[in-house]
Amino acid sequence: MKKIKILIPVYNDWQSVFKLLENIDVGLEAWDSDVAHISVVIINDASMEERPINTSTYNSLKSIQVINMKKNKGHERCNAAGLKYINDNSEFDLVVLMDADGEDRPEELGPLLCKAYEYPDKIITANRVKRSESFFFKSCYFFHKCLTFIFTGKSIKYGNYTCLPKFVVKEMIKDSATWSSFSGSLAKIINDINQASISSIRGVRYFGPSKMSFINLLKHSLSILAVFKTTLLIRSMLFLIIYLFLIIGKMSIITLIPVIAVIIMMISVIILSRRENILEFNSSLDNIKNIEKLK
What we know:
The chain is of the alpha/beta class. Helices cover 42% and strands 19% of the residues. It is elongated and about 70 Å long.
């Protein structure tokens, strides 16, 4: 029997997280308790919204904990603190990270876990093959993936929706990059040998509009790039040298736009890389206000 922890960060979205729990519980009905002991850890990122009374009963989920934080730290740092909490306080074999809003579809949790059982020593990622946003956002996301590949050499097709074996969790909580960008930190570890994947369709939020705006996507992209700061700076300098050599005698405001954009990117990455603070990460559990059991 494997002990599986599902890690869900939440901020002012209790309606969604309770609906997600119900869908997860129903979706895992076929999983026998002799095969898997599945429990949930919810990281409440100092929500201002009052948590409603939940009268639902759960059969597949064996326990549900809510870790209430004192101060809001943001989605990525909730994931990081959650991994550290699980590692330090739980017996587990696998950790699954999911967003609370329904965009990480619970229908795909079963296939994700099946793949983890098939490949017990591999990281299982839910690779996006279809998204539900507007054409403009999809175009921006495609540009983000291309930019990441060009300047870091990493093709990142996944988000937070992943299944991590214990040894990977232990490695990630030692890396300061996890405190800034989960996807970026995981990309440092992952390769063709230690990764398997399932195809994933990005779901539609249960309630309200998506929180992944253009600005949030830009921050997300730069945070990943910041994890590979050295590689990015080297490739950026090479690009600037070659590009400036090619446009000698043809310089204008238009031809200098790529130069300005790359310089801004380099400065932004240097600034964002300061978020990778291992001391803050190591003391992240000091931010816990209290722990409640829903089941």
